[in-house]
Amino acid sequence: HLISISHTMSSSSPPPAGNTSLIVPNSAYSSSNEDSSPQPHHHHHHSSSKPKTFHVNREDAAAAAADHDDNLSHFSDTNTATTQLDDSTFQLAGLPPSKRRNTFLDRAPFTIPFLSSSPKYRTRSAQISFILQQIKCVCITFIVFVFLIGMFLLCYVIWARKHKCIAHEQTLASFIDVQFGMKAMDEFWPKDPDALGSTYPQQKDKVINHFHTIRRNMNQIYMRQKWSGNLLEYQTIKDDNQCGGVRRQLYELFGGPWNVLTGKKDFENDQSIPDKKPLGAAFYPQDMTKTEFNSWVDSLTVSQKEAAVGFYHTVERDASTGGLKTRPYSDVYKEELNEIRQALLKLADLFINVPPLRELFLKKEEAFRTNSHTAADLTWLDLNPALEVDVTIGFYETYEDELFGYKATCEAYLSVKDSSASSQLQSISSHLQFIEDSLPIDDQYKNPNVGSHLNPISVVNMILNAGDAAAGVQTAAYNLPNDATILHDKGSKRIMLKNVQEAKFTHTLVPLTSHVLSADQHMFVAFDGFFTHILSHELMHGLGPHTIQVGGTNTSVRAALQEFYSPLEECKADVSGLYMLTQLINHQKMNFVFDFSSELLKQTGITYAEKLRRSLYVTYLVSIFRSARFGTEEAHGKAVTIAFNYLHDNGGIVSTTIGTKAGEGEAEEMDIYKHAINFSFMGSAVIKLMGEILTIQAHGDYLGAKAFVEHYGKPSSVMSSTLEMIAEDHSIPIDIRPVYGDDME
Fold this sequence. Notes:
Layout: E1 4-6, E2 19-24, H1 41-44, E3 52-57, H2 58-71, H3 87-93, H4 104-107, H5 113-116, H6 124-173, E4 175-179, H7 182-188, H8 204-226, H9 230-238, H10 246-254, H11 290-298, H12 302-308, E5 313-317, E6 324-328, H13 329-332, H14 334-350, H15 355-370, H16 374-381, E7 389-395, E8 410-417, H17 419-429, H18 432-437, E9 457-467, E10 477-480, H19 484-489, E11 493-497, H20 498-509, H21 513-516, H22 527-541, E12 547-550, E13 553-556, H23 557-561, H24 565-586, H25 598-601, H26 608-628, H27 635-649, E14 653-661, E15 670-677, H28 682-699, H29 702-712, H30 717-727, E16 735-739
Parallel strand pairs: 4-16, 9-11
Antiparallel strand pairs: 1-2, 2-3, 5-6, 7-8, 8-9, 10-11, 12-13, 14-15
Helix pairs in contact: 6-10, 8-14, 14-15, 15-16, 22-24, 22-26, 24-26, 24-27, 24-28, 26-27
């Protein structure tokens, strides 16, 4: 019960002095204060409904109220509507102890000012109920807020994933699908049953299955060679259907998580993947430095050193000593090589009636088992040129070893020979000694016996490829093996993949013409110019210095130039290939007939020899930008960057501004260029560039190679502008992607 203290006079009159009325409900008047005498009995039985009024001395009430205020030491809000009374006040009111509040909380100041101002919240239970309701509202509001934040984040993740899927799809779309596998086999495989032995037609499916086993295991070895965490990462996305399987397809195309065009990883959100492929791939310990490696190599015996810097051993950290040690490929990749070896033995049985192929399969099986590959490579070089099928399988290219360029990756090809195209090119290869003798370097660095180990050129149509050959940008031709000793003693074999080159020319080079060339030189672009230059490129890999002396020690150009060998060797092959063909044209030693465009055929004021020369130069200019799209940090991309910058600086290539383009962000406007060959200076610029590279190679000049690559190996503003314009046209594929169908998946 609340006891209201009120004045008995009207609001217009001053309060009477000396007394105050205490109005008490009847129900409250049942007993007296515990410190006072009991009240008269007749008051307890009063039957009237009118509240009882007691007159008390005003001064006594004021004193009691003052005592009560002293007790409220931590809460005395004068705006509080409810006056809390202590025992003295109850005594004045005559209330019995049973009607008093006895708990500590009731005795304590527990009212809330903004609640107690309303009659609705004058009870403690109502205040607690209100507080609980407010807490409930806050909790609900918080839950709704968290839910909305979660929905926003979910929508963002879905959008980001969709955006990333679109980026993945665009990257994959830049590689146009081209059918190989069984389709190519049906088209190109020899139709004559006697060509590969009378048993072949009945064993066709088995042949494909065995080569599929080789392909699958070669791809797995290549992934392991590229990065130590590659296979584990691949397994996590192999069955992942995100983006419709595009992520898996990209991983398989690139042979790892890094985009071969940009050098950056395509899966940015995965923190377990390094931002860039390790320079030493998985061939060396990740914590090894070049200084540590070189010091270790210097301490080795001759045979140990051959393994350390050779093609067929990885370098590992010795767990017991913490030092470095070598480990043969036959042990490192034992599981995959065992499956490959079994497939080779089965192929040897299938081709029992084709002794050269049977012997090759047996030699390759032995090489993978013993880690000794020289005998198998020599057997491959000695294969009968008339044989209709070519099988290339082994550890050859060193592009992935960007630390030193020592370690070879695995690759494989199954191809069918194009006999008519091969015979047409023999006239070119018969003049290689003539080209070697005319190279612009000192005679002491020239090979006087090129013709003594000259191997025929093979033009083939590819059925399948695997390993390094299938990763990223597809190989159009190859010149193997790379072993300097074999090259010196036996030479190399040049293989031209004609169906691959035709697909590249049609889908990736011709569409670039309008972006790159001045209009008056379009007519010089021809497939024959593209094809013969790739041929000459591969032939020139076999010419020039290979085994040299540096500081009185016999070594190879590859070992001396280390990481700068690949871009310089590719650039040498490009420009010396142009040099070789123009030399043959000038001396009337090339009998190859070009299929020129109808527009060029109408040009009567240009000799046929000049048409050939111009077609080679102009087609190569467009091909520079085709190759640069593979990435200017990759060996071939860096090679063409060096060539463009050097030839441009020396007047062989001229660029004309045709307009401007707004730069990105706050960048200034960018000039747009079209390029053309200056036929008056191109020949001399080619010879000058070739001479500089050959001299660096002949001297084994590592520092000279480093300075040369660093100076010319970055795209100039002129080149970069054109590459940016090309990149904006998403309709032009960068390269082809072999598709094998269900028979090879």
